Amino acid sequence: MNRSDKKMTHLQSGTRTTGAFALAAAVALAGLAGGCADDGPQPWALTKITQDYTFPARDAAGKVVKGGVVVPAAALNRGREAYVHYCYACHGMDGDGKGPSSYGLRPPPRNFKKGNFKFGAVPAGKLPSDVDLARIIWDGLHGTAMLPWDIPEQQLWEVIQFIKTFPGVDGKDNRWQQKFTRGKKKGQLKAKIGEPIKTTPDPWKGKSQAAIEKGEELYHLKAQCWTCHATYLTKQDFSDRSLAVDGKAKTTFRPNMYESKLVEAKDLYGVDVLPPDFTIDKLRSIRRGNELTDLHRLISAGVGKMPAWTGALSESELWALAYYVRSLQLLGEPENRAKRAALWDKLEIQPKFVPPPPPPAPATDEADEDGDEGDEAAKKKADDGEKKTATAAAKPAPAKPATPAKPAAPAAPAAPKTAAAPAEPAPAKPAAKPAAPAAPAAP
User: Fold this and answer.
1) Do 40 and 166 belong to one domain?
2) SS in 3 state form for 154-166?
3) Distance, CA of 320 to CA of 224 (rounded, Å)
4) Residue 430 C-alpha from the chain's centroid
5) Is 139 part of a structural domain of the chain?
6) Which of 73, 57, 66 is nearest to 13 (CA)?
7) Do residues 353 and 235 touch, judged by C-beta distance below 8 A?
8) Looking at the structure, do residues 153 and 265 belong to the same domain, yes or no?
């Protein structure tokens, strides 16, 4: 079992640090403070905390603790000392991710001043719980400089509380300390821990192959994971699957679809993010022995700019996606390298994709589309139409009643008209010369 699976029980100041650790921390703080005496304002991790802080929290049942949890200044100062001992080299004295060891680290250390975290069991963008942060610190993040830290539980809780005290960007309250600024709740704590993602029973136990097939379909169609992550189907397979499931063949694809797409995230983390290729890249917060459970949590909650899928997909679909991503992960294991090479050979050497022809234009008449029966129906309809036309031609058309003319406006009396004289016949034109009388016949 991973240490982070344990629930944190220390929600108050509890025991003090050991004498050896306290001495080491005091020496480190004294040396650092001496080096910064004339360099302007004291770094936050070297500044003694003199007041209690109130932070948002949820109880063991996941319900919001009204009014938050008060953390005494003494506990915060012990956390400050532990932070200097364990964390400042990467995350910096001011929690801005710019410690002396941070340069050249990719991805860069988290900037605590912004209060943006990944990999919590809460919807992406929401504040994580103390249990989430403890899991990340204890187990580390694969593929990064964030290694697992074997810190005692009480001390770890104090470090986590101190991290929440860093002033926000531009001196404003950070996300842990935000308060209402108006209305009846003015001055009260506004910050809230995200709604915890619950792990549900796996509905695909004993049916892993069916789960993988369903997950592959969801990955490429409904969830469209391939818009940021790599695609693992040939274009022809993709198009055929789309036609079979959605009733419409896919004919257009994003450029470089077999590579992950860079996602803009400077506003959250200071750098852009390249989503992992699941067949080769280590997944940050997936723990050995907890792969499917952690993948279900990760997909449900989302990561950074990747939205939370809980609610958008059913629990059965979330688990199916987890199975499919896990099957891709396993291709990166040394014993499965031949299978991974075969998959990528298939994708890289696939035949040229020929889009299917467009569907035929819809018929302009009302003929049935059921083949011969439709043709016969159309012919019968045409014959009936011809008979009706002949019958209509044989019958005299009923006289259409004339539309009564509108009475004209009375006009001014006109002069009486003279009746026209009848036309006289034109005189016949006389012959040019009268004909001579015929001679008498001989007796």
Assistant:
1) yes
2) HHHHHHHHHHCCC
3) 14
4) 110
5) yes
6) 73
7) yes
8) no
> Residue 51's domain spans which residues?
3-171
| 375 φ, ψ (degrees, to nearest 5) | -60, -45
Distance CA 185, CA 164 (A): 22
Q: Which of 171, 186, 221 is the last residue of a domain?
A: 171
In sign, the C-alpha dihedral spanning 79, 82, 87, 91 is: positive
User: Who's near 95: CB < 8 A, 6+ residues apart?
Assistant: 44, 45, 111, 112, 113, 163, 166
E-state strands within 156-290 = none
Tokens in use for 73?
């200044």
E strand or H helix that includes residue 34: helix 19-35
- From 48, 194, 51, 43, select the one nearest 113 (Cα to Cα): 43
CB atoms within 10 A of CB 198: 11
CA distances from 272 to 226, 266, 275, 279, 436 (A): 18, 5, 10, 21, 128
Residue 334 is part of a domain; what is its CATH number?
A: 1.10.760.10
Q: How many Cα neighbours within 13 Å face the side chain of 407?
A: 3
User: What residues does 310 pair with on adjacent strands?
Assistant: 313
Cα 324 from Cα 320, distance rounded (Å):
6
- 355 conformational bin, left if phi > 0, alpha if psi -120 to 50, beta if neither: beta
Question: Contact at 8 Å (CB) between 68 and 56?
Answer: yes
CB 140 within 8 A of CB 283: no
Query: What is the three-class DSSP state of 169?
Result: helix
| Structure-token pair, residue 178 | 């935000």
Domain match, 162 and 217 both: no
pLDDT tens sequence for the chain (443 residues): 565 555 454 433 333 344 444 444 444 555 555 555 455 689 999 999 999 999 999 998 899 999 999 999 999 999 999 999 999 999 999 999 999 999 989 889 999 999 899 999 999 999 999 999 999 999 999 989 999 999 999 999 999 999 999 999 887 889 999 999 899 989 889 999 999 999 999 999 999 999 999 999 999 999 999 999 999 999 999 999 999 999 999 999 999 999 999 999 887 887 899 999 999 999 999 999 999 999 999 999 999 889 999 999 999 999 999 999 999 999 999 999 999 999 999 999 999 998 888 777 777 655 454 555 555 555 565 566 555 555 554 555 555 555 555 544 444 444 444 444 444 444 444 444 444 444 444 43
CB contact at 8 A, 139 and 3: yes
**Amino acid letter, 221:** L
- Burial of 386 by CB count in 10 Å (0-12 exposed, 13-18 middle, 19+ buried)? exposed
